[in-house]
Amino acid sequence: MSDPETNYGGFFFPDRTTLGVPEIAEKLMVSTKHITNLIEDGELNAVNTSKDTKNKRANYRIPVEAYNEFITQRLVHSAGASILFDLHEAVQLDLYRRLKTKFESGEPKQ
């Protein structure tokens, strides 16, 4: 079976703790401005790591957990769970494995 992350452009970033705006924009095929707007509108949680207080130019880092929550919310609220059935079988299996591992680990719900 092929790897959904490499062959199907999966939404996830394995082995990462934070992400940059350009990475998320590329993964979701939207502009960096769109991602910045989501952050500034409070729809995507991020931390401004900029030390440039004079020009007030933001340098956002997005925790992977915040990104994953954003994706999950978008899948569930915008199209309902039915969107999951339209995904390629390899991607469905990858999501299933991830969710099963999370639930079996006993991690608290957020």
Tell me about the biggest sheet? 3 strands, antiparallel
Overall number of structural domains: 1
Strand arrangement across the biggest beta sheet: 1-3-2
Secondary structure category:
mainly alpha
Q: What's the oligomerization state?
A: single chain
Distance between the termini: 32 Å
Radius of gyration: 16 Å
Total number of strands: 3
The percent of residues in helical segments reads 40-55%
Average pLDDT: 78
Tally of separate helices = 6
What can you tell me about this protein's structure?
The chain has one domain. The longest helix has 17 residues. By secondary structure, it is mainly alpha-helical. Strands 1-3-2 form a three-stranded antiparallel β-sheet. It is built from six helices and three strands. Helix content is 53%, strand content 8%. It is elongated and about 50 Å long.
